[in-house]
Design brief:
- The structure holds two protein chains of two kinds.
- By secondary structure, chain A is α+β, with helices and mostly antiparallel strands.
- Chain A contains eight helices and twelve strands.
- In chain A, strands 3-2-1-5-8 form a five-stranded mixed β-sheet. A three-stranded mixed β-sheet of chain A has the order 4-10-9. A two-stranded antiparallel ribbon of chain A has the order 6-7.
- In chain A, helix 7 crosses helix 8.
- Chain B is mainly alpha-helical.
- Chain B has one domain: Up-down Bundle (Cytochrome C Oxidase, Chain A).
- In chain B, helix 11 runs antiparallel to helix 12 and helix 14 runs antiparallel to helix 15.
- Classes of the chains: A alpha+beta, B mainly alpha.
- At the A-B interface, helix 1, helix 2, helix 3 and strand 9 of A face helix 4, helix 8, helix 9, helix 10 and helix 11 of B.
Chain lengths: 351, 557
Amino acid sequence: MRITGFSNRRARLAVPALVLLCVPVTALADPTGGSLSPTNIFAPVSTPAHSIFGLSLFVLAVTAAIFAIVFSLLVYCVLKFGKPTADDGREPPQVYGSNQVELAWTVIPVLVVVVLFLATARVLVGIQTAAQPRNAIQVIAIGHQFWWEYRYPGLKVVTANELHVPVSDPADPSPTFITLLSADTDHSFWVPRLGGKTDLIPNHPNSMWFDPQQTGLYLGQCAQYCGTQHAKMLLRVYVQSRQDFDHWVAQQSQPAQTSTTVSEGQRIFETTACINCHAVTGTVAEGRFGPDLTHLMSRETIASGVAPNTPENLRLWIQNPAAIKPASKMPAMGLSDHQLDAVTAYLTTLQ
Amino acid sequence: MATDAISTFRPDTVSLPLVARLHDWVTTVDHKRLGILYIVYALVFLIIGGIEAAIMRIQLIRPHNNFVSPDVFNRMFTMHGTTMIFFVVMPMLFGFANYLIPLMIGARDMAFPRLNAFSFWLTAFGGILLYFSFLGANGLYGAGNAPDVGWFAYAPLTSRTFSLGHSTDFWTFSLLVSGFGSIGTAINIIATVFCLRCPGMTLARMPLFAWLNLVMAVLVILAVSPLSAAQIMLAVDRYLGGHFFDTQAGGSAVIWMHFFWIFGHPEVYVLVIPAFAFVSEIVPVFSRKAIFGYPVMVAATVCIAFISMSVWAHHMFTVGMSANVNTFFVLSTMAIAVPTGIKIFNWLATMWGGKIHFKTPMLFCIGFLFQFLIAGLTGIMLSAAPFTWHLGNSYFVVAHFHYVIVGGILFATFGAFYYWFPKMSGKKYHEPLGKLHFWLFIIGFHLTFDFMHIPGLLGMPRRIYTYEPGRGWDTLNLIATIGVFFQAAAILVFVANLLWSYFHGDTAGSDPWDAWTLEWSISSPPPVYNFATIPEVRSRRPLWDRKHPEDPDWKYE
């Protein structure tokens, strides 16, 4: 075969081919800094997330090598064996196969698969069968359309949408073990920097764990389609120092602080449909369908992370939830302006 | 020759009135007409499904966009997925199989022509039933709505508690009906391949196209049956008080997932094996070489089909299966990469040392090889279960399976369109327009789906109608949406090319590609009876033998 320069047609093929090569490589060589995105899977801060990250890099390296080899072969075929402009009109030599060659490209991939499988199985079993240390934090997460309920058995804390966990010291780990339940449809708990996702399935309890090694706020969102408002079922995990976490627990386990200055709002709250769904510990409100409001104002957001928890947003949420989150299960309460102000005033005292 | 005179004799159907011609098409049992019906039907739904995709991409062009409501978005992705899988790719591939298998094996029709027609009309009815939901899903109240439970319709979202009205029922019954059609066609393909091969055509001499479609048909029977069973169980749950998937009464949501994915994963191979079949016919002809390693290609295909029945739960790595179960499915899923890799190497070896003609069908096949390579490699990433605890249900997975279905299957199918268009229509297509289609489509494809991987790595889950700013997803989604317009333009060029060439193209002649399988030995389009005299073959490339009597294949096979 002559390789005396490419014809125009070949050159025209080569340029887009090289461009196409760059695109997936750029996509795979994603930078690993947490600054790129608060939900970057390549910015791990817990043991399971770190070990998945390590496996990911290994798999990416192997697949990138395979890509480089096979893609080069493809480009070589296209450039070298493109029909020459001065063709003699004869058919090329017919080759029907080769057992040696076939055996080679069967055995080598088998070996690659064995290596990949062993590396994967090691990480998989390591994460799934991790023992639970004595000072692990137990949390029950319950998925609802379209919000998260968190219960800390033993700590007498019930909260919603904002999960608080202590930072875990590698020398004396205090990981968080979460039991995952669902009250209605399937959901999935995914906070990328803390670990992989696990589904919350009704009638099928699951569990997961992570041991965050840095304090901070970690974001995520429901990762299993759960109904109309799946998109706005956001996750917020606050990793706190042990001291801050203990303080938070002490504050959350108190009953609601009520003040006589907002007794009108409290009366409206307790005599309308609000209490069918919402609970405020220490009062007649014992509903379980919606988020527990005992310490509503200790949370930074409402409607599962969708809007900042300000009195204006709270008032709008009670008046017209669809303005913040269409198709949420919170109904518009049909209160007068005066009643809205009173109920909002009451809610803002629930520190 | 006398046979040529017979084969070019055609009843003058053009002079018949339109009603009579339409009546002929509706009542036909001819495998070629049914094949074309399947293909045209699939093209119509391709455009509908494409519009649904475009609506979703426009909604996602920026965070907190309000182009459509959450309800509409959820209906769009449900209808897009269901349409593309069941009413575009499957009918398209069945259409080519129907048209080509009898021609390639020297038969005059499929084994059961009436079953063939029945199967097509069942599939057609299924698609129409699904779309009728837009009008009738709320029963007599007038305003309908399409299903919004996602194309894999996880329980218990499909229960009457969470899915009011009848939209889910339209989904259930349309898939049940078209599923029966698919099984009918699969039985027909198997019977045809086993019983109607011409003299001399042993299984070992059958074109790879027929072999691969035979394997596909077996998989259809194995895969669609559990899906149909699950649909019946779901209907029982919804209307006859069953509790199979009713989690509020002790039913299991996970059982639905198993039922769905033991259909769903073999289904991927039902779709991709016929695409392999196209590539296995087109690459040799445009490389001017026999396929490399024919027996290995057959063995690899059977092997893929066999393994594909035991990988379904890799769709369920996040469902909370035990470490042992997860490990098994990691191994089985990685194992399937080996026969798939063998196929890619064999196609490359077929090109190696050949004289490659870069006609439009070959360009699409080269695109297929490139994209299917990447799709396979992202598939290996996804088979590493802990990696999938991140990637599962993220945009990375969406990008991955669109790489398989669009970058792989659709590219190969476009190649098949251009390759067999002269045979089906008797006309040559417009080559520059074909190349324009290729370049527009490959640019659009890569803009959309290359950049779609990255939001998945940055934590963007699928099936969200809107997303929060500040997560590094905005620009990538914008680029992905821009790609859609290139793809839409490419499809317009494609349809224009088909229409223009059909009415104004040059006459193709019986063998425009100088190819080697039996369909190119008869006129274009073929006569109703296909072969005036049933041919006899002595090798895998009967026309090569005829064209090269000095060096026939049967000396070497």
